[in-house]
Input
Amino acid sequence: MNSLQCSKCSRWVENVGEDAKKVTCSVCVLMAVGLPEEPKNYTSTGRPPGWHFMAEFVDKDGNVFHKGKEQPKLKGTLKPTKVKPPKKKIKRRSKDEILVARHELKKAALKKAVKKQQDFLNHKISKG
Output
């Protein structure tokens, strides 16, 4: 195996065949061809998530699906399926938020205890 210089940029290219006379490096090939385009992002069908798992689903055009399989004979015979909005996810509190909340509770309890002692010292005894 030999190594030759690129015919365009003079970079060394290794592992070239014995009978090769001229070489173009991978960088020059990429510059000539261009980077490959990334595939398009997902486009929504307009159907709700999990529609293909429903026993029966009718879209707004009247297409009827039984467990995700279209039933062309039933097209337009049923009303569109009403989809309930998804439940809101409960946000988990971080450790810092939990500690701040616990601190607030302890502070309130301490304030209440101090007030109770002050009332006792000032002869303001309350029942309860």
